Amino acid sequence: MASEEELFASVDALLSEEPQLPPPAERARLREAAGVTQARLATALKTTTQSVKNWENGRSEPKSPRLDAYQRLLNGWAAKYPARDPASVAEPVPAAFAAPAASEVETTDALPDRAVPAAQPARPGTRAGATSRRPTATKTARPAVDPRFEHGPLAVLDGDGCAYGVGGIVLDCPATTVPELVEWTLRESGLGASKLHRNGKDSDPLIVLTAAAAVKLGLPERLEGHEQRRSLRLPEDHPVVKQVVNAKWQLTQRGFGPWARIYRKAQGTERQCVQLAILSWDALDERSWPGVAQMEPADIARVLGVYAQRVITPRGSTAVSGLELMTALRPPTRAVRDEASGNWVSGHNPGSLGTDPMDPAPPEATPEHPVVVNSGWSGGFLNEEAYQWVRDVSLLTDEECTLPYAVGLDLNTAFLAAAARLVVGLSAPDHFHAPTFNPKIPGSWLVDLSDVELDPRLPSPFTPEGTRPTGPAWYQTHTVAYAQELGYNVRPLEAFLRRETGAYLDPWHDRLKTAYVDTLADLGVTKDLDDCQFLAAMERHKDADPALAAVLAAIKATVKGGIGKLRERPQGKRYKEGERWPALQRPTWRPDIRAAVISKARVNMHRKLTNMARMTGLYPLAVLSDCVVYPSPGPSPLDFLPYAASGKPQPGGFRLGPTPGLAKLEGIQSMLWAVDLMEKGYNPARHIKGGDAVLDEGE
C-alpha cells in the first residue's frame, strides 16, 4: 500500500502540471459566445490573431505565462456559457497534427500535400496558387512532435507579413524591423528543430526572406558588389546593422550577408539564435537549389522543409550545411561526471573531432598553409583528387571507332558511397621513417608506384589525370592498399599516420543516403524497378515534381560540398601566404579526411573499370570524377552492360540503380562527336556531365 509521502508527492506532481485547456472547438465556441473577436482576444493576450486561430483549430498551444491567462479566461467564459449539448464539444486534436520537427523523417512530409484544414478560416490576402498541386502521399504514423517547435524548422516570410511554414502552416508575423523579427521568431513563432544527436544542440530557427520582405525590413533588395557573392555583406554602418547592435544582438564574423546569423549568448541551455536567408541576395544558389528562388513562398517552404526534415535545417550553402551535419551527428562534447566534484561537466565525445582545430601533416596541407610555409616543407603533397582522364585517340581500336554511340554512366553520389564505413584518423599525425605498410591505418604514405604496370587503355588508379606515376609520391592509405591488392609489393619511404581512428562519417553517410534514396523514391525511382524501368523513371523523375527534384539536387550538392569543405582554401585578395585563414579554426578543417574519401572513390571507380574490361572487353573513352563514358552499339547502357544468362547484372562491374555507388545514364552522344572532341583535347565526360564534377572547397 502506498505511503502518505508517496500519495502527497503524486498529488503535488499533478498540481504542478500545466493547466489543461478545453478542446480547440470549445475554445472557439466560448469566445464566440462571449462576443469577442479573434483580433480582440489576441490584443488582450498580447499575441497575434494568427496565433489565436491556431489555438482554436488545434495547430498549436499557448505557452506560459500566456497559457495560464488563457486558461483563466476560458474558465470564466465556461462558467457563464456552459455547453448545452455535450456532444458539441469536439475531441481534442492530437499534438501530432502539428508540423513535425526537423529531425523527423516521414513520407507525408516528404511529399507535403496537406493544405490548411477546412476548419481553419481562409486567411485574407493569400495569393492564388501559393500552395502547389502535389501527388497524393502515403499516410504513415507521425512521430511525437517536440512541443517547443510545433511549427516546424523554418518559415518563408513574404512582404505582407505572412510566414509560410512546412505542412501548409501560415503564421502572421507583425515584425517591421530585423530585431523585431528575431524576437518574434524566438518568442512567438514556435519554429526550430530538435537536435539530431543526444549530445548535440537544437537547430536554430530559419527565416527565409523574400525580396519584398527584405525591403520591408529596411534591407536593400539586392546585395551587390565587385567581390564574390559569398564575401558580400552589409557595411557596419548600415541602419539595419545598427538596429541589430543597438538591440543588444550580435552578428557572426561573416556579418550581415545572404546567410546572416543573429544571436545573443545562451542563457543556460537555451540558445538565442536565428538564421536568416535572403533570397534576393542569392542565398539559394541556382546550382544547388535549381529553380527554388523563383518559386512561391509556400513552395520554397516545402522544399526547404523536406530538406530540413531529411538532412538538416539549412545554415548556409549546401557545402556549409554538409559540414554542419557532420558536427550535428558527431557532437564534439558530451556531459561527463567530474570525479572530484561530482558535477557534470563538458568532456570529449569519443569518435568526434573534438573542439580544437588540428594541424595536418605537411604533405596533407596546401602550399599556403602555415605548417608548410613556417617549416619550409618541400617534400611534396598529396594529390588525391577525382579523375579527369581521357583515353589517347591512338589507343582506340577500329571496332570502337565504328560504334555509333558514346554513353555516359554516372555513379549515384559516388563520394557518399565512398564515405560508408570509412576509417579515418581522429588524432594528430605522427611521422615515421621506412614504416611497414598497413592498409588498416589511415594516413599519408610516401611510396614509389612508378613500376606498377597497368593496361594503358585504363586510367592509372594512382593519379587523378590517369597517367602513370614518375617516381615517389604521397598517397592516401586506400591508394597504396589498392596497389598491394593488384599484387605489387609496396615499400613506403615515409609516412604520417594517426594512432586514434574511427568511422567518423558513418552517421553522416547513413542520413544522407536515406535522404537521397527516399527522395528518389518519392520521384518514382524505387529499388524494386528492373533496369529498363529504372532508366525510364530516371528520364522523367525531374518532371514528376520540380520541388522534390530541387531537394534531390540539394542533397547531392550537400555531399560534394561537405566533402570539399573539409579543405577550404583561403579566400579574398588580402590573404598572404603563411597566414592562418578562418577555416583553419574549425576542427572540421581536415584535408586528410577529404583525401581518404576521394582516394576510396577513385579506387572504387578503377576496380569497376577493370572488372568491366575483364567481363566485356570494353574500355572507357573518358572518366570525369564519377562519370565514365563508354563506346556503345546502342543509345542505352543496356546495350553494353554485362548481364548473366538469368538476366541479372554481373557483380563487380557497373550496375544500374538508385542506391549510392550504382550507376545511372548520364547522357548520350554520337561516337563521332566524342572522338572529334578527344582529338581536340576535350574530355567527352565533361561535356556530357556539364562540367559540374569538382568538389567545391569554398561555398
Count, helices: 21
Average pLDDT number: 85
Extract low-pLDDT stretches: 86-143
Q: Give the % helix.
A: 25-40%
Strand order of the largest sheet: 3-2-1-4-7-6-5
Question: Which geometry do the CA atoms define?
Answer: globular
Rg, rounded, reads 29 Å
Number of strands: 20
Tell me what you see in this structure.
There is one protein chain. The chain is of the alpha+beta class. The chain has a seven-stranded mixed sheet with strand order 3-2-1-4-7-6-5. Strands 10-18-19-11-20 form a five-stranded antiparallel sheet. It is globular and about 95 Å long.
Quick synopsis:
This protein has 21 helices and 20 strands.
Secondary-structure map with pairings?
Elements: H1 4-16, H2 24-33, H3 38-44, H4 49-57, H5 66-80, H6 107-110, E1 154-157, E2 162-165, E3 170-172, H7 178-187, E4 206-209, H8 211-216, H9 239-246, E5 250-251, E6 259-267, E7 270-278, H10 297-310, H11 318-329, E8 333-337, E9 344-348, H12 370-373, E10 388-390, H13 398-402, E11 405-411, H14 414-419, E12 424-425, E13 429-433, E14 443-448, E15 472-476, H15 477-485, E16 494-498, E17 501-502, H16 506-522, H17 531-544, H18 546-565, H19 591-616, E18 622-624, E19 627-632, E20 663-670, H20 671-679, H21 684-689
Parallel strand pairs: 1-4, 4-7
Antiparallel strand pairs: 1-2, 2-3, 5-6, 6-7, 8-9, 10-18, 11-19, 11-20, 12-17, 13-16, 14-15, 14-16, 18-19
Helix pairs in contact: 3-4, 10-18, 11-18, 15-19, 16-18, 17-18
